[in-house]
Amino acid sequence: MPRAGDRTGGAAPFEGLPSIRRARTAEAALLSRFMAHAFLDAFGHGSRQEDVLAHVRHHFSAARQSRELTDPACVTLVIGPPGDYAGYAQLVFGQPAPEALQAQAPVEMRRFYLRRDLHGRGWAASLMEAAKATARERGADALWLSVWQQAPRAIRFYRKHGFETIGTAVFHVGTDPQKDWLMACRLPAGG
């Protein structure tokens, strides 16, 4: 089974900035595999293997991705050519936001991943800007997320893109409670 940093398809190696687009329902199985690999690469070491695998089975199945891809409240953006994802961002509209976030129309960024071997090329920044633009287009005035407290690179990235810590949360990986930071950023109209 390849890891998140491994190639997932037969397309040519990435050159320049790949396209960013909304994932299609027909991609549910491929997206499911990519999501599972990305999660295992990022967090596979943080909990017992049985907890990590239970989390992956529950959250990243092809059936669940098919449901999420057809849910109008869920938008999954992918970066890279079809069949060879570099990363993805998933926005969920209409979810309750943390109490500390005072916003009229907040949206949750439920997932944000980029292949590890592609870090440092500006692609994550482009994906973040596309996610913010998508949220603004749907009327959002703030974006919030939770991030593992033991993920300093991710935390730095979010801070660089305007997110501030607004609280803490517990994120369960299987039966293992993990400590997360809640972070949010404002989405000014037009910018």
UniProtKB/TrEMBL annotation:
Pfam families: Acetyltransf_1. Keywords: Acyltransferase, Ribonucleoprotein, Ribosomal protein, Transferase. Residues 18-188 form the N-acetyltransferase domain. PROSITE patterns: GNAT (PS51186). GO terms for molecular function: acyltransferase activity, transferring groups other than amino-acyl groups. One of its GO terms (cellular component) is ribosome. PANTHER family: AMINOALKYLPHOSPHONATE N-ACETYLTRANSFERASE-RELATED-RELATED (PTHR43877). This is Ribosomal protein S18 acetylase RimI-like enzyme. It comes from Rehaibacterium terrae.
